[in-house]
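Researcher: I'd like a structural prediction for the single chain below. Treat it as a standalone chain; there are no partners to consider.
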Amino acid sequence: MEGSSESNSRGLNTSGVSEFLPAERIIADRSKSLSHIGYVRSLLGSHKEDNLRADDDINVRALKCEDVSLRQWLDNPERSVDAFECFHVFRQIVEIVNAAHSQGIVVHNVRPSCFVMSSFNRVSFIESASDSGSDEERAKDTTTTTTTTTRKSQEIGGSRKEEYQEEKQPFPMKEILAMEMSWYTSPEEDTGSHSGCASDVYRLGVLLFELFCPVSSREEKSRTMSSLKHRVLPPQILLKWPKEASFCLWLLHPEPSFRPSMSELLKSEFINEPRESLEEREAAIELRERIEEQELLLEFLFLIQQRKQETADKLRDTVSLLSSDIDQVLKRQLSLKQKGNDVLSFLVSRKRIRQGAEGVATEENEDNIVDDTLDSTLLESSRLMRNFKKLESVYFATRYRQIKAAASFKPLARYSSALSSDGKSSVSNLTQPSRDHMNDSRQGGWIDPFLEGLCKYLTFSKLRVKADLKQGDLLNSANLVCAIGFDRDGELFATAGVNKKIKIFECESIIKDGRDIHYPVVELASRSKLSGVCWNSYIKSQIASCNFEGVVQVWDVTRGQLVTEMKEHEKRVWSIDISTADPTLLASGSDDGSVKLWSINQGVSIGTIKTKANVCCVQFPSDSGRSLAFGSADHRVYYYDLRNPKLPLCTMIGHTKTVSYVRFVDSSTLVSSSTDNTLKLWDLSMSVSGVNEAPVHSFMGHTNVKNFVGLSVSDGYIATGSETNEVYVYHKAFPMPVLSYKFKTVDPVSGLEVDDPSQFISSVCWRGQSSTLVAANSTGNIKILEMV
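Model: Treating it as a single chain, here is the predicted structure.
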């Protein structure tokens, strides 16, 4: 292992180079005589062959950037005492001092500021001070050197974080270095006696104490070191490190003659006590890390095995579910074939009694039917395979919903949800209910709805243009159609928009007559731009409209006259709807944040629902006049029981932008459209505490981020517009588009097709429960389309 990693784990700060003495300061003054320690340096260098090797830990060298001062390391407030680490440092300094003493040289500067530590806590001696200088001169020289190093580190690193780091340290370096001189001065030196080898031994005792007694504050440091002068040790070191404390007191004896010599010190039991070597410790650490790595790999493999086993269990349960469903479908198919034999025999007998000419024609027709069936099958197969993943997802979602419903008859504590927490279907999440319930849930209850959706999804292959509605005012720039509506019989349809006109057209005449220009059978003029229209399902000639001025109007189409005008909204009215169950009841939604209920006969409002945001759309269910749904600019859909209009019966949350349209698919299901690029299908029976945050499907494929693009529902098919100038058709059973048709844009000058990104579909409407729909775009281009 690299020693740097171990050093870091001990709180060593390798960025502390600002506190060291630079290499160029090793010799304090070349004009002075060679100092005592300078002589030691030269001696150690000149006798490497006799005493030291170049690669020994005991060395005297220039400072390197990766080194850290022993003084800084000792004063690190985050340092914890590691006995092996401290002894390793102490042993190296003892050997450096012994090397000097063996040559008869007194080191003097056995102080932490004169040593640095490199990788693996290897200690090196770096300080050289003039022997003739006083302690004050040496302190001044050391302090100046430290500041010089700080500025030098700024030049090397270029980092403002290193600027005057002594100000940021818990122990300011200048003051600590000055106090260090006093701490490491032996008693005989204090009395003015000559400094000898015993003085170096005393300094080793002070250093040993500092290694094993870290302090966290400057005041505590000063107090502890002052007590050490009187050989008074803190209680914690006496209790925790008794051997080290005893050895330290021996080295700190006030009488130099009672202190051990370096040879005695090296032969002492404390120094020679068996300890693991640095190499052994590094090997042990490396071995431990390798074991931990193997454990990590083993844990990873176990996790993979667990997840794959869970996947295998889910797959096994899924295959079992599919096998059961296949058996059910095969049984149904066999039953239908048996019932169909009689019908087939009857049809064959009818064909045989036809006339010869008819027979020939029939044979030709039969051949054509076979060919068409083959083509249809291939086409359906292609579409099925293209959307296979989505169809598969819908199938499993349908099955799990049914199994969950079957399991809900048992106590909830015994069964978990059929869907996992991440939203993905999971068969293994289902605990096994009783065999009877499981068999019931696996009967053909799910087959009919899914099969109906699949057949309807595959029944039609494209949208075909039946007719183009060509108007005489196509050059009028204000031709945006905001709303389209069919009357109760599907014979007439009305368009309304920013041209302030309601135009009534006869659908069949437009389809059959290939005229250059089509004129409306009735045209009703309004004072303001129109935003919506709605026919009365009971009174064929009655139609209602709303406009940008907040006015709701009721018209008589036969007479071409305004019947009623209601002016209670304060801002633009976006949407109106007349109840099918109660044809005298009308609802309107406005930018003023209100939904108003109107009596058409009385011409006044009979109720108001106030909201905090703009109301963009309103819709009655087809079978009731006592319920109402509306969409709002607060991204939510609200469903109210009009008998209690204070609180919504259900709030549907899921859209991320304004809800522009809502339409009932049936009495308990509705679809909403939003400018978040989605349609969402909601099951009103799935609300919990009046809130539904889980739509059955989110239909995606069209583009809608800014405009109102229309929404219409017929027999499970959902039509909507797109800002790509396309009409999209979905089916309620599947979240992907069934069909789409793009409006072509023709340049009026060149007659060529061009792509105009500004155009979008602005309104769509089904013709009753048929496969025909009318769509209009933002330029007033209206087409009658049919699914084929």
